Amino acid sequence: MKKKTLVLAAVFAGGAAFAAESHDYPFRAAPLTQVKTTHGFWFDRIETNRTATLRSNFAKCNETPRIANFTNAANRTIGTFGGIRFDDSDVFKVMEGAAYVYAQSKDAELKKYVDWLIGEVAKAQELDGYLYTARTLGFYFQHFNDKNRSPSITGIGPTRWSNLVSSHELYNQGHMIEAAVAWFKATGERNFLEVAIRSADLMCRTFGWEKTQIKDTSGHQEIELALCKLYRATGEKKYLDLAKFFLDMRGRKDLRTIWGAGCQDHQPVVEQDEAIGHAVRAGYLYTGMADVSALTGDKSYEKAVLRLWSDVVGKKLYLTGGIGARQQFQHPKWGLLWEAFNGPYDLPNDWGEAYLETCAAIANILWNQRMFLTYGETKYVDVMELGLHNGFVSGISLSGDEYFYPNPLAAKEGYKRSKWFGCSCCPVNDVRMIPQVPSMAYATNGKGDLYWNLFMASTAKVGGWEFTVETDYPWNGKATLTVLSAPSASELQPSTLFIRIPGWAVGKPVPSDLYAQTAPAGFMDVSVAVNGAALNGCPGKDGYVAIGRAWKKGDMVTVDLPMPVKRVKTHPAVKQDVGRLAVMRGPILYCAEGVDNGGKALEAQLPADATFADATVAIGDKTYPALKASNGLVLIPYCLWDNREPGNEMQVWFKE
Q: If you placed Cys at 627, which of 92, 338, 635, 656 could pair as Cys (CB 3.0 to 4.6 Å)?
C-alpha cells in the first residue's frame, strides 16, 4: 500500500516514483494541470478542441461501429464487428484526449460519459486481460470462412498474436494504456488503469525470453512508449522490461521472422542509422527508444536515436515539421515501402506525391520533445515548434471538426479537409495532441531551474516556480514572464531561468543545413531584459540565455524576438525546390491560397527581392495576420489554409 501511495503522489507531481538508482530523463516537462493558457494562438485551439473537436470525435465514434464494438464485445455478440481491425485505437485516443480535457476543465458530464465508456471497455476485456474487439467478435473467422475473403484482408491471424505485423493487437493496447494512464493522472481513479494493468500483465506472461513465451514484436509501434508510461504510473519494472523486449525483438532474424524496413524491422534498433519505412511507426518507435534509453540508462539506444534524428533533420524533414514524404516509396535496397520516409533530399510538395500524414507530424513532435528531455538543447524544441505551428495544426480546421490526412505543400483545386475518414487515425490523434501542448512550454531539471521553451500566454506552477507569461506569439516575438514565486531567494543558491532563443531568430530555421534563410538573422537582433535592464550575453551551446539570480515576486523578464519576413531556401540537393524560395515570419510558414489570388496559386511567383507589407485575412469572425508581396501576391499562414472556400489551389515554394 505504501508503494502505491508514493507512486500516486509522484504521478500527480508530474514525475515518477523511482528508487535512487533508477534512471529517467534529466529534464521534466511541466505537469499538464499546472499550465493554463489565457488567450492567443494555443488558447483558441485548446478551447476549440474542448468544445468542438472532442465532441465531434466522440460523435463519429458513436455514428460508426467503433464504440458499439465494445458494447457488442461486452455481450459477446459474435459476428457483429464493424469497421477496421484497429478502430479500437481510435476510441482510446479520444478517451486520452478526454482525460487531458477533464484534467483542465473538471467537466462532470464529460467524466460521467468517460466512466460509462470505461465500463464498456472493461466488460469487453476477456477474463485473462485480452482486449481486442475484432477477435472477441469473431472478425477473423467471420471472413475466413467466406471464400471471397482471406485472412490477409482482415489482417488478423487464426489465433491470438499470430499476425502481429498487421493485426494491430499490440498497437491497440498501446493506445489503451496511454488513455488509462492519462485518466488515472487526471482523476486519481484506477477504474481504467486496472484494465490496462490486466492487459499488460497478460502481455508480460505471453511475450518474453522464456522458452514458453512468444518472441515477437508489434507491426505498428506504440506499445513500447505506452508501457513506459505504465511503468511510471505503477512503479512495476516488468512493464519497462517488456517495452525493452519489444524493441530488442526488432530485426532479430535469428529469433523470429522479420517483416522488413517498412516496419523498421530490418535491423536491430541499436544498429539502425537511417530513418526508413512507415513514418508514423518510425516516430513512435524512436520515441519509445528514447523513453527506454532514459529509463534504463542504455546508451546504445541513445546513440541510435541520435543517428536517426540527424538523418531526419539533415535530409528528410519538411519546412512544416512534417515527415513521411511518400505514400509509396521504392527504396533501392529495401523495396516498396508505404507511407514512408523518402530517400535523402527527396521532398516532393504536390498533393498526390507528398504524403505528410498528420499523425506523422504528431509522432515527430513527441519524438523531439523526448530529445529535449534527454539533452536540454533548443534545437530539439526548434523542430518540435516547427511541427506544432505548421505541419500539425494545418491538419485540423479552425472550426475543430474537419481534417487533413496528408498535408502537402502544394495542392491543386479540389483538395480539401474532410469530416472523417474510413481510417480516421488523424482526427483522433489531433484531439489528444492539442491539450498536451501547454505542458511542452516549460520544463525543469530537478535543480530549481526553469526552461522557457515555447512562448504562449499562460499561467503556470512548475518546479517551485509560479509565473505568468504575456505574449501574442507566434504573431509577435515579444514575451514577458512575470515571477510570482521562485524556488530560491538566496544569492548563494540562485535559481536559473533558461530562455530559449529559437533557431529561426538566429538564422537557422532548422538545426541542419537542409534549410537556410537567404538573409540570416542573428542574435544581435534579439533583446532580453530583466526589470527593464538589458542583459549582455549570448546563448550558450545549448541555445539558451541563462539568467541566474535570487528571484523576487514581481520580477519581469522580457524577451523580444524580431520577426522580419524571411525567405528560405533548401539544400541544393532538394531537386523539387531548386530555384524556389519559401516565406517565413518567426516560426510561421506562409503560403499562397487561390481564394486570395484570383483562384490561382500553383504558378504564382515571387521575385527573390520581393518586399512584403502587413495585411490581414478574415476567417469566420476572427482576423489573422497575412502578407502582401510587392508583386501583389497575398500570403497567409500555412496552418490556416483551406478554412474559407475549400478546395483552393495552394503553394508554399515559389519560383523566383
A: 635
Residue from 594, 613, 595 nearest 603 by CA = 594
Rounded (10°) CA dihedral 228, 232, 234, 235? 100
Are 98 and 190 in the same domain?
A: yes
Residues 68 and 171 grouped into a single domain: yes
340 shares its domain with 455: no
322, three cell numbers: 512534417
What are 173's three cell numbers?
493496447
Residue 9 has what pLDDT?
A: 33
The three grid cell numbers given for residue 217, joined into one nine-digit string: 514484436
Q: Supply the mean pLDDT for the chain.
A: 94
Q: By three-state DSSP, how is residue 626 classified?
A: strand
pLDDT of residue 535: 94
Asked if the structure places residue 311 within a domain, the reply is yes
Q: How many domains does the chain have?
A: 3
Question: 9 lies in a domain?
Answer: no
Note the pLDDT tens digit of each residue in 474-514: 999 999 999 999 997 555 578 999 999 999 999 999 999 99
d(CA 57, CA 188): 25
Strands (E), 413-562: 442-444, 450-452, 458-462, 465-471, 478-485, 495-500, 515-517, 527-530, 533-534, 544-549, 556-560
The Cα–Cα gap between 277 and 331 comes to 9
- pTM as predicted: 0.95
Range(s) of the domain holding residue 79:
21-440
Cell of 107: 467537466
Confidence class for position 140, pLDDT limits 50, 70, 90 = confident
| Whether residue 360 sits in one domain with residue 213 | yes
Q: Are strands 450-452 and 442-444 parallel, antiparallel or unpaired?
A: antiparallel
pLDDT tens string 300-346: 999 999 999 999 999 999 999 999 999 998 999 999 999 999 999 99
**Closest among 277, 346, 272, 281 to 309, alpha carbons compared:** 272
Tell me what pLDDT residue 494 has: 83
Closest CA relative to residue 281, chosen from 344, 350, 342, 360? 360
Neighbours of 168 (CB within 10 A): 26
Could you tell me if 578 and 530 are in contact, meaning their C-beta atoms sit under 8 angstroms apart? no
Is 382 exposed, middle or buried, given 0-12, 13-18 or 19+ CB atoms closer than 10 A? Answer: buried
Helix axes 223-234, 279-296, angle to 10 degrees: 30
Per-residue pLDDT averaged across 627-641, rounded? 98
DSSP-assigned letter for residue 30: P
Which of 539, 560, 581 terminates a domain? The answer is 560
**H or E stretch at 610:** none
Report the amino acid identity of residue 513.
D
Residues 344 and 410 in one domain: yes
Question: Is 296 found in the same domain as 169?
Answer: yes
Report pLDDT digits (tens) over 259-302: 999 999 999 999 999 999 999 999 999 999 999 999 999 999 99
H/E stretch holding 365 reads: helix 358-375
Query: How many CB atoms are located within 10 Å of the residue 656 CB?
Result: 13
Whether 122 is in a domain gets the answer yes
Cα–Cα distance for residue pair 626/614, rounded to 1 Å: 6
The span from the CA of 17 to the CA of 40, in Å, is 35
**Average confidence (pLDDT) over 344-355:** 95
Residues 6+ apart with CB under 8 A from 531: 555, 556
Kindly state whether residues 425 and 454 are assigned to the same domain: no
| CATH of residue 169 | 1.50.10
User: 560, 576, 602 — which closes off a domain?
Assistant: 560
Residue with the three cell numbers 477477435: 135
Dist CA 52 CA 415 (whole Å)? 23
152 and 246 in a common domain: yes
